[in-house]
Amino acid sequence: MATAKYFKATGEAGDATELPADPFDGVINEAALHQVVKAYLANQRQGTASTKSRGQVAGGGRKIWRQKGTGRARQGSIRAPHWKGGGVAFGPTPRDYEQRLPKKVRALARRSAFNARAQNEQVSVIEHLDVDAPKTRRITELLEKLGLDGRKVLILTSETKPNVYLSARNLRHVKVLPFREASAYDVIDASDLLIEESALNGTQEGGDNA
C-alpha cells in the first residue's frame, strides 16, 4: 500500500497516510503513459502553419527569357522555389495533429502517473484546502510550510474551488485542478502533488482525456 505525507489544514505535519488503491495500485505502465503524453502534446498543436507553392504565389506567368541562346540557365518562372519571392518547395500546409486513444489506455496512463509520483515520494495529502477570499499570499505561505515552495506543484481539490484557483493563478509553478479532472499529463508534468483528503475519499475515474 502506497503512503504519502499528511498535513493538517494549517500546514502542520501529521502521520503518514495510506493512499487508496484507486488510483494508487502500484502499477506503472510506461508504454501507456508515453502514448498518452505524446497524444496530449500532439493535440495541443494548432496545425495552422501554411506556405504557398509556386502555383499559389502571384506572378510568374511569363517565361523569363527564351530557352536557348542566352548563355544562361533555362528558367521557366520567377516564382520557382530557388528564386527570391518564389514559392516554397515541400513547405508545411494546414493539417490536423489530433490523436485518439482508447479510454482504457488513458485511464491506465492516469493511474501510472499517480503511481510514479507516489513511488518517488512526491505526493502529499492535506486535511482540507480552502480560502475565504482570493489571496495569493495564503497559498504561498501554505506551500512554504509544506516545504513545497519553489517546486512545480499540482494542487488537486475535491471539487471546483474558485478561491483556491484564483489564489494560485499568479504563481508560475502552481496549478489547481479538481482531482477528477487531472489528466496523466497534468500529473506527470508536476514535480509534486498536493491532494485534498476528501478528494481521495471520493476517488472517481476521470481526467483521462489525452
Give the structure's gist in a few sentences:
With 210 residues, the chain is α/β, with parallel strands linked by helices.
Structure description:
The chain is an alpha/beta fold and 210 residues long. The protein folds into 2 domains: 3-45 and 100-201, Ribosomal protein L4/L1 (Ribosomal Protein L4, Chain: A); 47-96, no CATH class. It has 6 helices and 6 strands, in the order E-E-H-H-E-H-E-H-E-H-E-H. The protein has helices at 30-43, 103-119, 136-146, 162-168, 184-189, 197-201, and strands at residues 3-7, 17-18, 123-126, 153-157, 174-178, 192-196. A 6-stranded mixed beta sheet has the order 2-1-3-6-4-5. Helix 1 (30-43) packs across helix 2 (103-119) and helix 3 (136-146) crosses helix 4 (162-168). The longest helix has 17 residues, at 103-119. It is elongated, with a radius of gyration of 27 Å. The relative contact order is 0.20. The mean pLDDT is 90.
Largest sheet: 6 strands, mixed
Count of DSSP helices? 6
Strand content: 5-15%
CATH topology (level 3) name of the largest domain: Ribosomal Protein L4, Chain: A
Kindly state the number of beta strands.
6
Average pLDDT level:
90
Task: State the share of residues found in helices, binned by percent.
Answer: 25-40%
Low-confidence stretches: none
Determine the structural class based on helices, strands and strand pairing.
Answer: alpha/beta
SSE pattern: EEHHEHEHEHEH
The top-level CATH class of the largest domain is: Alpha Beta
User: In the CATH hierarchy, what is the architecture of the largest domain at level 2?
Assistant: 3-Layer(aba) Sandwich
Supply the number of structural domains: 2
Distance between the first and last residues' Cα: 28 Å
Identify the CATH homologous superfamily of the largest domain: Ribosomal protein L4/L1
Outline: elongated
The Rg value, from CA coordinates, equals 27 Å
Spatial order of the strands in the main sheet?
A: 2-1-3-6-4-5
